[in-house]
User: Fold these one by one.
Assistant:
Number 1:
Amino acid sequence: VTVIGLGAMGRALAETFLRQGYLTTVWNRSANKADLLVSQGAVRATTVAEAVTASQLLVVCVVDYTAVLDLLDPHADRLGGRVLVNLTNGTPAQARRLAAWAMAQGAEYLDGGIMAVPAMIGQAVAQLLYSGSQEAFVAHRDTLSHLGTSSYLGNDPGLASLYDLALLSGMYGLFGGFLHAVALVGTERVTATAFLRLLLPWLSGMLEALPALATQIDRGDYTHEVASNLVMQAIAVANIIDASTAQGIRNYLVAPLQALVNPAPARRDGAHHAREPLAARSPLADD
Ligand SMILES: NC(=O)c1ccc[n+]([C@@H]2O[C@H](COP(=O)([O-])OP(=O)(O)OC[C@H]3O[C@@H](n4cnc5c(N)ncnc54)[C@H](OP(=O)(O)O)[C@@H]3O)[C@@H](O)[C@H]2O)c1
C-alpha cells in the first residue's frame, strides 16, 4: 500500500497498514513527517512518482482536492491499472470530477469519507464510507477493513462525500448548539465543564427523539399528534433569542432556527408536503 499525505490522518492510516503487516510506502510534502513511520518499517518514497509506482493500491489523504490533483496530475501516466482511494474531504462534485480524471488515466477510483479522528483509526468505531468503483472496493475490502468499519455506498463516486458532509453537518449542528449553550450560562459565570453535568444527559435524551423525527420526514407526513408542537417550539426559540440578546450573546448560531419553527401560513392550516417515501432509495436502508 502507498499512503500519500502524512498529516495527522495520513499518519494514522499508514501506521495501521504497517501494524497489520503491509509493505507500506509513504510520501509527504514535508518529508520529516515520514521519519517515525520509516523507523517503524515504512518505505520512504522520495518523490510522488516513486510513491505512485510502488503499489497497486494508492491511498491519498491531504488537505483538499486541489492538492490531490496537483500531486498526481504530473504522474498521470503512471496511474494506469492502479486503484486510487482518495480519503481527502471534499464535495460530491469534486469527487465525481476526480473519479472521471482517474478513470481517464486507466485507474480505478474509490472516494472515501473518514468518520473518525486519527486515534480511532484501526478500530471498529472508525467508520469509513466508500463510493465509486465496486470492483476496486471488493478487491481491496480486506485491506481497507483494517482502517475501521467500511460501508460501500454505491457506484456514484460523489456518494461518500455526500454522506460524509451530511454526518459532519449533524456534528457541527451539535457543536453549534453546545457553544451557544455554554456562552449563555457563561454570562452568569457558569463554567462549560460544570454545565456539562446537565447538558450531556439532556442531549443524550434528545437523541432518542431522532427516530420518530426520521419516520415523519421519510413519510412526509407531519400531521400526527406530537408532544412538542411547533407553536410551542417557536415561542421557546424566540425566548432563547431574546434572553441571549439581553445577556449580551450574539444569536448567529440560533437565529436561523427561527425560520424553521415559524411555519408558513399554509402549513399552519395542516397542509403538508406529501411525497414518495425516501427509505427505499438509501443504500443503507437494509443495514
Ligand atoms: N484529523 C481529523 O480528525 C480528520 C478526521 C476525518 C477526516 N479527516 C480528513 O483527512 C484529510 C487530512 O486531514 P489531516 O487531519 O491529516 O490534516 P493535516 O494534519 O493538516 O495534514 C494535511 C496534509 O495535507 C498536506 N498538504 C497540504 N497542502 C498540500 C499541498 N499543496 N500539496 C501536497 N500536500 C499538501 C500536508 O502536507 P505537509 O505536512 O507538507 O503540510 C499534510 O500531509 C482532510 O481532508 C480531513 O478532512 C481528518
Number 2:
Amino acid sequence: MHISLNPTYYCNFRCPFCYLGDMLLDKTTLSVDHVYEKLTEVLSHGYNIDSIDLYGGEILSLPKEYQSKIIEACLSFCSEVRVTTNLSLDYTELLKYPVQVCVSYDYTCREDHVQVLANMINFPADLHVLMLASKGLVKKNVENIIAVLNTVPNLKTVEIKPYSTNQYNQFDVKHSEFEEFVKKFILNKDKLEAHFVNEDMIQASLAGQMNSFSDDHVYITPNNKFAVLDFDDQDNEKFTELDNFQEYINWTQKEKFKVSANSYCNQCEYFGKCLSEHLRDVQSLEHSCNGYKLLLDWYKERA
Ligand code: SF4
C-alpha cells in the first residue's frame, strides 16, 4: 500500500492552481500519535506499507521538532519515505534522515521561484522535481525549462504531474495539452541531465505494470481520516474522507465497478493499467482522457 500523508493543509504559498484552495490557511495538524494509529490500522488489514509520501500543505512550515517526529514515525513503518516540499523554507531537518526530497517546482509558475531555484542549487543531497502541468506551465518553452533544471547539480529525476480541475479552481487544461507537454520532454530528453520519470511510467503502463485503480493508494488527512481523491458532480477533484480503513476498501471496490461500467474504459486496451492517478468518468476521447490513452498510443507507435 502506498500512503500519501498530509499532516497539514497549511502552506506558506497560495498558488492559484492548488487543489487545496482555502484549506491552505487551515493550521489543523495531525498528531504524531495519530500517524502511528492510522498506519497500524493499515497493517492490521493485512497490507504492507510500501512507501509513504509526506506532503501537505507545506511540511517545512511545521515546527522542526514535529518534522523530526513525523519523519521518524514514517521511517519506523517503511524505508521508502518521500517528502514533497516547495523548498522555500529552512530544510535542514530533512538532511538528518534517509528520505527522498521532492520539490514542487514549476519553473516560473509558482511564487518565490527565484529563491526556490537558489535553494535547489545549494541543496547538498539528491533532489527530485515534481512539476505541475498547470495552464501556465504547459505554454512554456520546454528547452528553456530543461536549461534551468540542468543548473541544479544534485537533481536526479523530473516528473510532470497532471493538473486536475478541483473544487477551488477550474483552469481549462486539456488532457491532450498535458500529453503534448510530456511529449516535448521525451523528444528533448537527451538535453535533460536528470532522469525523466514520465517515460518510465509510460513504459510500465505499456508493459501492463501500472495500476490505475486506487486500491493500492490511500491518503491520510490532517483530520485523522483516511481519504481518497474523488470527483464531485461537476467532475472536479476533491478529497472524500473515510472513517476507517474498511470504508476505504469498500470505496475501491465501488471505483472498480464504476470504471468497469464506463464504455470507453471497459473497451480500452489499457484498462486498469493506464496512466491515471485516479480514474475519472471518461465521456469522450476527443482530447484524450486522464489515463492519457493518446500519449500511450503515440509512444507505442514510435517504438
Ligand atoms: S486510458 Fe483512458 S479510456 Fe483507457 S482505461 Fe484509462 S482512463 Fe479509461
